[in-house]
Write a structure and sequence with these properties.
alpha+beta; Translation Initiation Factor IF3; Alpha-Beta Plaits; 3 domains; five-stranded antiparallel sheet; three-stranded antiparallel sheet; 33% strand; elongated
C-alpha cells in the first residue's frame, strides 16, 4: 500500500504540470492573436466613436440659442376707402340682321364713349370686356331665326371715385342700357401704403405678445433671432350691382365707396436671457 501511494504522487504531479502547460500555451496564443476586425476600436476617432454616428450635429451653443427663444406671431390690418373703380357697362341692340344690330350698337357705343371722354377720361381708361352676337328665335318656332342681338360690354377705369356716378349717368343718357356693376379697388400707391401700415401693426402686435410672455416668465428679451412673413392677404375688390335700368331715373346716381383692407401676419423669434 505504501509503494502504491509513492507511485501516485509523482504521477499526479506530472499531470498537474501538463495541464498547466496546456493552459499557458493557449493563453499565450490568445495574447498574440490580433482582435477581430469587427471588435477592433477605430483609433482614428479620439473618442473611439465615428463622427457619423453622432445623433446631433448641432453644437451646444447653437442648441442653447435655439432653445432660448420666444416664438410669436403678429397680425396687422390696414384699411382705407377705395381710391379707384371700374365701371362695367354696355349697349344691347337688336336687328333683323346681325349687320343691322351691330351697326346700331356701334353708333350708340361711340356716343357713350364720347360722353365719358367729356368727363376727362381717355381711351386708356376704357377696354372691351366682351362682344357677343346672338340669334333671336321665334317664340312659336324655336328653329326659326327672326333677328339678332348684339351686346357690347366695356370696362371704364375711374381714378377719381367722385366721378363714378357721373360716368354712369353720362353713359345711360347716351344709350347705354346695360350696367353690370362697379368694382372698387386700390391704386398701386395706396396698396403699398396700406401694406406698410399692416406690416408695422403686425410687428408691434408680435412685440407686445413677446413682451407679455417675457414679463410673465421673468426673463428679458435681448434681440430678434429671425423674422418671417407667414401670410400676406391683399385686398379683395368688392362690387356694387345696385343700379336702375337706364332711363328709369332722372336723379344723379349716388356712389359711396367702401373701405378695403390689407392684412399681414409675421412670425418673430425673440432671444432672451
Amino acid at each position: 500500500m505504501s509503494s502504491k501511494k509513492q507511485w501516485l504522487t509523482p504521477s499526479l504531479l506530472i499531470f498537474a504540470v501538463l495541464i498547466a502547460s496546456i493552459v499557458a500555451f493557449h493563453y499565450m496564443q490568445y495574447r498574440e492573436t490580433p482582435p477581430n476586425e469587427a471588435e477592433a476600436i477605430p483609433t482614428q476617432f479620439p473618442s473611439g466613436i465615428p463622427y457619423t454616428l453622432s445623433t446631433n450635429k448641432i453644437s451646444p451653443i447653437e442648441l442653447q440659442q435655439e432653445a432660448r427663444t420666444i416664438l410669436v406671431s403678429g397680425s396687422g390690418t390696414a384699411s382705407d376707402r377705395a381710391d379707384e373703380a371700374a365701371v362695367i357697362l354696355g349697349v344691347q341692340t337688336e336687328g333683323k340682321t346681325a349687320s343691322e344690330a351691330s351697326k346700331e350698337n356701334a353708333d350708340i357705343m361711340t356716343s357713350v364713349i364720347n360722353a365719358i371722354k367729356d368727363l376727362g377720361l381717355t381711351d386708356e381708361d376704357m377696354r372691351t370686356v366682351s362682344y357677343s352676337v346672338y340669334p333671336i328665335y321665334s317664340k312659336s318656332d324655336y328653329t326659326e331665326i327672326v333677328g339678332y342681338r348684339v351686346i357690347n360690354m366695356i370696362s371704364v377705369k375711374v381714378r377719381d371715385t367722385n366721378l363714378i356716378g357721373a360716368v354712369i349717368d353720362a353713359a345711360t343718357a347716351n344709350g347705354a342700357n346695360r350696367i353690370q356693376g362697379v368694382s372698387f379697388g386700390l391704386s398701386s400707391e395706396k396698396q403699398n401704403e396700406l401694406k406698410r401700415k399692416a406690416y408695422i401693426a403686425a410687428i408691434k402686435d408680435a412685440e407686445s405678445k413677446a413682451s407679455l410672455i417675457a414679463e410673465t416668465l421673468g426673463v428679458k428679451i435681448t434681440g430678434v433671432y429671425y423674422v418671417t412673413e407667414s401670410m400676406y392677404q391683399p385686398y379683395k375688390p368688392y362690387y356694387d350691382y345696385r343700379f336702375e335700368i337706364a332711363g328709369t331715373s332722372t336723379t344723379p346716381t349716388p356712389i359711396i365707396e367702401g373701405k378695403l383692407s390689407v392684412s399681414v401676419t409675421v412670425q418673430i423669434a425673440y432671444t432672451f436671457e
